[in-house]
Amino acid sequence: MQVIPVLGPGLDFAAWSPDGPFVQDRQGGDTIMTETQRDVLSKVPAITLGFWVIKILATTLGETGGDTVSMSMNLGYLVGTAIFGALLVGLVWWQIAADRFRPFLYWATIIASTTAGTTLADFATRSMGIGYAGGTALLLACVAASLILWKRTLGSISADTVATPRAEAFYWVTITFSQTLGTALGDWTADTGGLGYVGAAVIFGVALAVVAGLYYRTQINRVVLFWAAFILTRPLGATVGDFLDKPLDHGGLAFSRPIASIVLAVAIVALILVLPQRAGDHPGHGKIDA
Asked: Are residues 79 and 192 located together in one domain of the fold?
């Protein structure tokens, strides 16, 4: 059971148990946590259509932004990884230290994880020479290991429990591994499968649609489906980003990487301002069993 402090009249702490979130008042009585109390504790956004739209744009920006630094600025994959890795560490620390969900901070951290994932995956698959298959297998193992360790340590991998420093640390480590995996998987599908960037984007888009269908039509664990969708958005964004900025003779549109990155960043900021941004429930919030 996780125990964390709660700011609220007459409340001492909140706890997550296999039966769901609870609060305890100062007389020692346990009650089911209200939606408002649970949302106050949450450091992640509610899962809505807007969330997925911004997430896909952020992963596309991660591809064009990472390529801007490593390729257009000719700094290389290792230096790019060091730059974005340092930025990611700083933002994760700030995110964990924050007292509540802060939309711009959350999405800035997501973008930092995806740009770091882009340069790190490119460094692993190209500079280290392990190839797309080796990089994808290695990173898939890292994602699985992170989720397993998170589950064994805290008892749940549900994003609804991301309200303690340890849970947030696992959350962001898993996200960073998944972003890096998505880059390698997207490049592997587009470059070696003969599908090109558009074909690969269609495949990952269809895969996301299948996950959505499973969510609405089956009783498959919602937490598992959430992480499946979260991971799949990255190779979708990676292939779309490559399609935008790669040369024409490589199957891309040859757009300027910096300009494409700026346009995507402006679109993300506009959506954050226009679409409702609030902390809230993730799929399966009432049954924290995964």
From this structure: yes
